[in-house]
Specification:
The chain is 27% helix and 20% strand. The chain is an alpha/beta fold. A three-stranded parallel beta sheet has the order 1-2-3, with no helix packed on it. It is globular, with a radius of gyration of 11 Å.
Length: 64
């Protein structure tokens, strides 16, 4: 993943690791999103198109 993605997700990942939510929903995730950085967690991601195969830990839901 590009460095700008890592910088974008850094505060989100910090909050997730601190609060330890049971579920994670990312709106506009694309095929990777925050799931790329949370390989040990299941993430539900929504987007209007995924373009490529989502990561195994990302449950992709088409939505607008």
């Amino acid at each position: 993943m590009p460095l700008d993605w890592a910088l974008r997700y850094a505060p989100i990942l910090s909050a997730i690791r601190e609060r330890r939510p049971q579920t994670i929903l990312e709106v506009g995730s694309g095929p990777h999103g925050v799931a790329y950085y949370l390989r040990d967690r299941r993430v539900v991601g929504t987007d209007i198109i995924f373009g490529e195969r989502p990561l195994p830990n990302l449950r992709a839901v088409l939505a607008s």
